[in-house]
């Protein structure tokens, strides 16, 4: 069945910014940008009901290329920013976006606890296996020995197997997409946004300027949509095995989904009887008596 844009709700122009895109020609960010807008429109989510949190990097330049509430944060810190916003106002749709450099290097601790805590946010990883904004530095996901601008003899460190790492944390939602397959990526984003818990979406994307080893053509030839096969997305072991094995084809689609695990706020005993959200509980308080002890 073909997904249809709802008769009521936002149109694509509701998310269209007047700022021109400045990514390199052929950058995978164009595909991710298009799929994200399509997903939000097809879900009927208005720009004033979504918060888009951007990390630092080439992908972060999307913060003024799409409308909605947007926050461009610190390098490697986008997940706690997004989690805090969702905890404060659970009525918002909160989406965090980060690159492989920020997310698996300086921000890896936040990724670990984002998955562990099962915050009700969607995290989109822009995975081009390098730091593109700082002109081709190697990231933790760059293949070992691969020459890069800052390491012309190749990096000595072992490449981090990101999917194996993520699955070791017992996530509740894992998907992988390809920036060149916009219809499939739109479907993946919609499923991730609708999932109640931490949704991890790894988007393989081309970096035509600095990544010469995983080009658009390379990914297009190898990426395979699991939706075309009989597949049980509730099987954690099977999903992990498929995600880790990229020796031949690279499996894409919703790889794992477990909806029975409660999200972070639903696990807080102190909030179970609450009738208001945290943002509704914010107000002016007279703290003069508290400050008097410091006089």
- What is the distance, rounded to the nearest whole angstrom, between the alpha carbons of the first and last residues? 69 Å
Question: What portion of residues belong to β-strands?
Answer: 15-25%
Number of strands: 8
- Mean pLDDT over the residues: 92
Provide the spatial order of strands within the biggest beta sheet: 2-1-3-4-6-5-8-7
- Please outline the major beta sheet: 8 strands, mixed
Which radius of gyration do the C-alpha atoms yield?
Answer: 20 Å
Number of alpha- plus pi-helical segments:
9
- What is the fold named in CATH at topology level? Rossmann fold
* H and E order: HEEHEHHEHEHEHEHEH
Q: Briefly note the structural class of the backbone.
A: alpha/beta
Query: Which term fits the overall shape?
Result: globular
CATH superfamily: Thiamin diphosphate (ThDP)-binding fold, Pyr/PP domains
């Amino acid at each position: 069945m073909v997904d249809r844009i709802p008769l009521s709700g936002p149109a694509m122009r509701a998310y269209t910014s007047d700022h021109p895109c400045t990514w390199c020609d052929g950058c995978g960010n164009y595909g991710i940008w298009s799929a994200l807008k399509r997903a939000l429109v097809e879900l009927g989510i208005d720009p004033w009901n979504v918060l888009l949190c951007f990390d630092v990097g080439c992908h972060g330049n999307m913060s003024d290329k799409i409308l909605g509430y947007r926050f461009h944060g610190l390098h490697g810190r986008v997940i706690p920013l997004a989690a805090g916003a969702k905890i404060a106002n659970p009525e918002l749709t909160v989406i965090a976006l980060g690159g492989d450099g920020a997310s698996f290097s300086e921000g890896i601790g936040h990724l670990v606890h984002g998955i562990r805590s099962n915050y009700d946010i969607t995290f989109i990883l822009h995975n081009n296996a390098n730091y593109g904004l700082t002109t081709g530095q190697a990231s933790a996901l760059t293949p070992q020995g691969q020459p890069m601008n800052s390491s012309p003899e190749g990096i000595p460190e072992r490449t981090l197997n990101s999917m194996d790492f993520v699955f070791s944390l017992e996530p509740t939602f894992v998907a992988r997409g390809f920036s060149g397959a916009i219809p499939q990526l739109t479907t993946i984003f919609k499923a991730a946004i609708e999932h109640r818990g931490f949704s991890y979406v790894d988007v393989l994307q081309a970096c035509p300027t600095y990544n010469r080893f995983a080009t658009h053509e390379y990914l297009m030839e190898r990426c395979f949509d699991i939706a075309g096969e009989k597949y049980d997305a509730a099987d954690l072991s099977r999903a992990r095995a498929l995600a880790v094995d990229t020796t031949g084809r690279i499996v894409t689609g919703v790889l794992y989904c477990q909806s029975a695990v409660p999200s972070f706020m639903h696990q807080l005993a102190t909030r179970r009887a609450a009738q208001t959200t945290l943002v509704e509980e914010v107000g002016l308080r007279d703290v003069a008596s508290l400050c008097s002890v410091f006089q």
